[in-house]
């Protein structure tokens, strides 16, 4: 923890100094793009992550495989045991490369996304000047952290019949089951709201949207990558803590979100009009349930007509949502012994069947790229997002990719940090668990660092940040 505190404080000081700090921040904001967060900055949170958290996550993955030896034998015989041994060997090699700061290697499994990964590696080598400079501690943190999860998946893909095994599944399941009390409370609240929503005045509709938006926001604290796979459930009724958490929302653009949605509803008188909301998901477990509750309310309140969910195509960042997690969660809700949870599950499966809810998992979401590269790297996904009326980006990793995971000054406008990524109006909902933050009032970052050196990395604070492109 001492290293963590020192790193966060050092990072805060560096970012304030780069932008001038205090009142000077407002007078002159750096126009050039700053350097990426990286393990080369000794004592930073990136350095701490690469030194401690990432090796531990790989070790946990290896341990999970070890514990399932009997399962693999029962399912696949000796072939399964041999595949397990080889996958463990590859993950152990990965851990050694990480800990000894070896250069990043090409992906060799032939999976469709390998071409993009290896092209990105070549670009990084060219940018950093050599193969040696493209190493775990010298390359951008965002890149090597994403790369680690891709290499874990590679170890399985290279060893059939292990290809579809999710080394993080147990932790995700545990997170959901240990959050049952909070999920029950939220489901009960939603069922009550759904019975009354048609009679809501606009002021009541607005208040309920804000309530459920904040529940979804704080659900982002249930992140197993930041806790390195250690159970991190939501145990309290999330609705009872919202008032006490409000002062911890450093940027709150809820009013912009409300105005966009209510104006769309007022205009949506034509039978052909359709308000589409996209949710780029983050963690499974309680956070996913909170996102589904928000989506349910958007539909029943007629603030939206169609919800598109975007998840990960492979196991990612320990607890990120895959299609398997999404479907499993709906099934668990539907088959719950608790009536209100079951009612939610039945309604949600019906939304999927009717096409009101659509799940998508484009491979770009598990690329290492900043989102400002999307229009060039995944133009089909960018064009799809342009159809949306509003995109919610959940969580810390999405925020890092939105802002490029760079050493921005805290007061740099959110729009500046997006660097042209504006497919549609978007809102980032994130609890702070990495040392990048923009859009703060001048001097606030320095003030927070003075009172809490870890303010950017503990999930204690949060933001609801909105940006809307100018439509022609």
Total strand count, please? 7
Structural class: alpha/beta
Could you name the CATH topology of the largest domain?
Rossmann fold
**Overall residue-averaged pLDDT value:** 91
Distance between the termini: 50 Å
Strand order of the largest sheet: 1-7-6-5-2-3-4
The radius of gyration over CA amounts to: 22 Å
Poorly predicted regions are: 1-14, 16-30
Sheet of most strands: 7 strands, mixed
Give the oligomeric state.
single chain
Which CATH top level class of the largest domain fits? Answer: Alpha Beta
Give the overall shape: globular
Task: Walk me through this protein's architecture.
This protein has helices at 2-19, 24-27, 45-67, 69-76, 78-99, 114-128, 141-157, 169-177, 180-196, 202-218, 242-245, 254-267, 286-300, 323-334, 339-354, 374-377, 379-385, 395-402, 414-418, 444-451, and strands at residues 249-252, 276-280, 306-310, 357-360, 390-394, 426-431, 462-467. By secondary structure, it is of the alpha/beta class. The protein folds into 2 domains: 2-157, Transcription Elongation Factor S-II, Chain A; 177-467, Uncharacterised protein PF01937, DUF89, domain 3 (Rossmann fold), CATH 3.40.50. It has a 7-stranded mixed beta sheet. The N and C termini lie far apart (50 Å).
């Amino acid at each position: 923890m001492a290293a963590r505190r020192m790193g966060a404080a050092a990072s805060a000081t560096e970012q304030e100094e780069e932008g001038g700090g205090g009142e000077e921040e407002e007078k002159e904001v750096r126009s050039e793009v700053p350097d990426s967060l990286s393990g080369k900055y000794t004592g930073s949170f990136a350095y701490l992550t690469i030194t401690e958290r990432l090796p531990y996550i790989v070790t946990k993955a290896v341990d999970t495989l070890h514990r399932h030896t009997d399962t693999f034998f029962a399912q696949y015989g000796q072939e399964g045991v041999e595949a397990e041994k080889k996958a463990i060997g590859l993950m152990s090699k990965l851990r050694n490369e990480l800990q000894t700061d070896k250069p990043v290697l090409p992906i060799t499994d032939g999976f469709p996304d390998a071409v993009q990964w290896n092209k990105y590696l070549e670009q990084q080598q060219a940018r950093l000047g050599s193969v040696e400079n493209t190493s775990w501690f010298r390359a951008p943190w965002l890149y090597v952290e994403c790369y680690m999860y891709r290499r874990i998946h590679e170890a399985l893909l290279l060893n059939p019949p292990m290809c579809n095994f999710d080394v993080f599944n147990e932790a995700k399941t545990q997170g959901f089951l240990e959050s049952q009390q909070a999920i029950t409370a939220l489901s009960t609240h939603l069922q009550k709201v759904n019975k009354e929503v048609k009679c809501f005045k606009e002021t009541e509709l607005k208040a309920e949207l804000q309530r459920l938006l904040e529940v979804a926001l704080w659900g982002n604290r249930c992140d197993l990558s930041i806790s390195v796979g250690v159970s991190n459930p939501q145990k309290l009724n999330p609705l009872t803590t919202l008032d006490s958490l409000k002062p911890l929302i450093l940027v709150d653009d809820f009013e912009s979100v409300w105005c966009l949605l209510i104006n769309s509803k007022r205009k949506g008188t034509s039978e052909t009009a359709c308000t589409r909301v996209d949710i780029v998901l983050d963690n499974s477990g309680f956070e996913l349930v909170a996102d589904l509750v928000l989506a349910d309310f958007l539909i029943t309140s007629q603030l939206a007509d169609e919800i598109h969910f975007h998840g990960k195509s492979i196991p990612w960042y320990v607890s990120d949502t895959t299609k398997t997690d999404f479907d499993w969660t709906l099934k668990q809700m539907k088959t719950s012994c608790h009536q209100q949870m079951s009612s939610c599950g039945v309604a949600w499966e019906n939304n999927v069947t009717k096409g009101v809810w659509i799940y998508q998992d484009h491979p770009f979401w598990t690329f290492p790229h900043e989102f400002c590269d999307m229009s060039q790297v995944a133009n089909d996904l960018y064009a799809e997002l342009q159809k949306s009326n509003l995109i919610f980006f959940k969580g810390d990793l999405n925020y890092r990719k939105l802002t490029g995971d760079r050493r921005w000054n805290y007061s740099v406008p959110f729009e500046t940090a997006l660097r042209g990524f504006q497919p549609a109006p978007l809102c980032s909902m994130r609890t702070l668990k990495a040392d990048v933050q923009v859009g703060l009032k001048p001097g606030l970052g320095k003030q927070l660092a003075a009172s809490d050196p870890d303010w950017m990395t503990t999930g204690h604070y949060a933001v609801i940040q909105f940006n809307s492109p100018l439509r022609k």
